[in-house]
Amino acid sequence: MRLGDILNDSLIKIPLVQTAKNDVIAEMVDLVLTTGKITDRKAVLEAVLEREKMMSTGIGNSVAIPHGKSPAAEELVVALGITAGDIDFEALDGKPVRIVFLLVGPEKASSLHIKMLSRISRLLNQAAFRRKIIDVKTPADALQIIREEEKHLES
Predict the structure, then answer these.
(1) Tens digit of pLDDT at every position of the chain (155 positions)
(2) Fewest CB within a 10 Å sphere: which of 25, 94, 113, 146?
(3) CA-to-CA distance for 107 and 70, rounded, in angstroms?
(4) For residue 76, what is the domain's CATH number?
């Protein structure tokens, strides 16, 4: 499954308004809630924040991938947020974050959840791709860049 197949314009927010880690996560959960892809904001937010307590999902290179599993999500959902400025996400490399992908799915979708985390990590491993995403102005442009990069990776 491709990231570009799961994402749509309503699951992309540019720029994110919040400037603190937990507030950014809450803003991303709220974004997903508005699409009807989750049924319980509190349950999803708690699941993601619990996962975050184990170890920061700020993976480095300006990227964070907060994620969690909850029965409030019937299927895997992915959202993308681009911050207006640097956010301290307690990232593994100690550097601020600008790109935030939120993944939420049901317990039964563990395999797909792991595959999507891996796919996002692989895409964001490329500096040129990260720069393009950080500079994007609209959700439609972000989606186009993601889909083009996925085609490139698969060829």
Answers:
(1) 899 999 999 999 999 999 999 999 999 999 999 999 999 999 999 999 999 999 999 999 999 999 999 999 999 999 999 999 999 999 999 999 999 999 999 988 778 889 999 999 999 999 999 999 999 999 999 999 999 999 988 76
(2) 94
(3) 6
(4) 3.40.930.10
67 counts as catalytic:
yes
Can you give the pTM of this predicted structure?
A: 0.95
Q: Look at residues 4, 6, 17 and name the one whose alpha carbon lies nearest to residue 85.
A: 17
Cis peptide before 96 (omega within 30 of 0): no
Q: Which residue has the tokens 């990232």?
A: 91
> Of 67, 69, 98, 113, which one is the catalytic site residue?
67
Domain count, the chain: 1
